[in-house]
Structures are given as structure tokens and as C-alpha cells.
# Entry
Amino acid sequence: MVPNRSVFKLMAYLFFAYSIMTIVMSYMPVYFRYQGMTAKELGILLAVGPLASIFAQPFWGFMSDKFKTIKRILIIVVAGTFIATLGLFQMNNLVGYTIMMFVLFLFLAPVTALGDSLSQKTALQHKVSFGRIRMWGSLGFATSSLLAGYYLTFVGIQFIMFPILVMAIITFVFVLSINDVKATNKPVTILNAVKIGANPRLFTFLLIIIFISITHRTNDNYLGIFVTELGGKESLIGWAWFIGVVSEAIVFFAAAFWFRKFNPLTFLMISAVLYSVRWFLMGAATMPETLLILQALHGLTFGIFYIAAFQIVTKLVPEELQATGHVLFITTFFGISGIIGAFIGGLIIESAGVAQLYSYLGYLSVIGFFGLMIYKFVTENRLGETVEYSNT
# Structure
């Protein structure tokens, strides 16, 4: 089915929204090192954003469900992202950076999280593949990482603020044109939202996948550092992200074909195995070019994992609280895992080096694999569950 104009507008929004995220995630660590931050201080700074998202994403997700609008919330958070970015680059010390990184992520985190939630709802409404819509976020991530890498290599990392602001302005223009989706008339209360987090099946699922998501978020934070420590320039960081996220977009694009083959939990276990292989090989790398080659595994790890997990969460929460459920998952994946990965990763790098960090990530993915295996056995064999998942 050919997407209509409203779907194309959403695709454009995702493209530029994820462009903001890629510049912040990929190059802010390098900027902070340029500003003289130690590895330990960098770990603190990189943990602040995920900490803010733990508060921001559930709050904005609940507000979206409460007032039955995603678009209006997105208008607020995109505008807030622009203003917070201006404030961040007025700082020049650890305390100032810490405060403004927290403020920035209060707005930036839901820019993509609620965009993904709107994509899931739009996909169901228009009977198109969620992966087909979501891949445009990946393409924005890939394109911006590459172009920003060349831009920063040419002008210097100290001018990172300008591409972030430009992408925020373009994103704001597109968010004004996207369409909301029809919401259920069921009332939403804080008690309803709290009950989602208390759902034992959902809680257990999120607890297990955090072992895998920690490894993913740690790589998000320190890939740029690893590239530069192996002798690569900022442009190579861009190429690393470009290769990884293009492979991710391909997986998203083809999701409607491969996803129906197996149960989502089976795909999660496959991604956990691939994650462990990816990290062990990266830990053994001695040249930055090796990291670029291994980034091709990004699509097969994150792409498979994200779509499968998103589908499981969608089925575990009631319809009227879909946005809250989606951002709860994203908060776990990018927020809680981001804090642990950033802070602990910084400590490991300072004591043992980046290569050793990646070896530890490999072992952590193995633990996640066995956790998913146990979860699948309990939910499908012991409980006799036969949940039907929509094609995505």
C-alpha cells in the first residue's frame, strides 16, 4: 500500500528529529573531551541525558495520553529542544554542562520517543508497515551523522551547536504539518499509568532486555571516543554511524517481510546473540576501519531488537495508554540503560580502556540472551500463551 501525504509528512518529521539526536549522541562526547572533560566527568555528563529522559518520557507520554494528542506535545518539546540547545552552549564548566544537558534531554528525549509512538499508531491506522515509516528516522540519523562528521572535521568540533539548531528549526516546521491519530475515548488517569509499570509481565520483560540495551547505549556513547582513540578523525565517526544506521534502515524497510516469520521473542534472542558477537569483535579491533566494517551489524542487532520489542510492549499495554507504554519501553532502553552504560562505561574506560569495555558488553549480551530464553519458556510454555502480533 502506498503511504498517503500524512504518512509522508510523518516520515519527514522523523528524518529531521533523528538528525538532532544523532548529532547530540555522536558528537557531544567528542565536544566535551575537546572542552577538557576527563573520562570520569564525561561519564557523568553522558549519564545526565538518560537520567532526564527517565522523568521526561513517562511524563510527556502520559500527557499525550491524557490530552489525547501527540502532535501538540511534540510542538512543545521540539521548541524546548531549540531553546535548551542555545542555553547549553553558553556554559563552560562541568556544573553548567551538567545542568543544561539535563534540561536539554527533558525536551529532546520525547522528540523521537513520541515520534515512534505516533508512527506505530499511524501504521495501524493507515495499514502500512511501522518499519517502513520508522526507517526514515534511521535515514535521518545516518545522513546527519555523515554530513556532520565532514562539517565538524572542516570547521572544528567547537561549532557543533549550529547543525543542532538548524535541524531543530526544520523539525519544528514539519511537526506543525503532521497529523494526529484518532484517540480512544477511554479516560486516562495517573493510576492507570502507574498500573502499567506494575504489570508483572511487562516489568519482567523490561528488566531482562535492559541487559542488552545497556550494551547498545554504551556503544552509542563511546563509539566516537573509540574511533578517535584508534586514530580516526571526526569524519570517520560520521561514516561509522552512517554505515550502522543505513543497515538499520534496510532492516526496518524489510520488516513487513521478515517479521512475520517467527515470534517476536525469537527475534529478540537472535539479536542478543548478534549483539554479543558484535561487541566481542569490536573489543578486538586495533584499527578504526575495523569498527566501520562491524557497524554493518548495527541493523541486524538494533533493527531486529527494536521492532520486536516494540511489538511486544504494544500487546502488553491497553490501547488508551499506548503512548505511555511505548515511552516506558523507550525510557528503559535509552534512559535507564543510558545512565548505567554512560557512568559505568566511563569508569571502565578510565581503569581498563575502551577495548576492555566492549568485551564486557559482549558478556552482558549473553546474559540477556539467556534471560530472554527463560522468559520465552515461561510465557509461552508454562502459561500456554498464544498472543497474535500484528505485521509490522
About this structure: The chain has one domain: 5-382. The chain is about 80% helix and 0% strand.
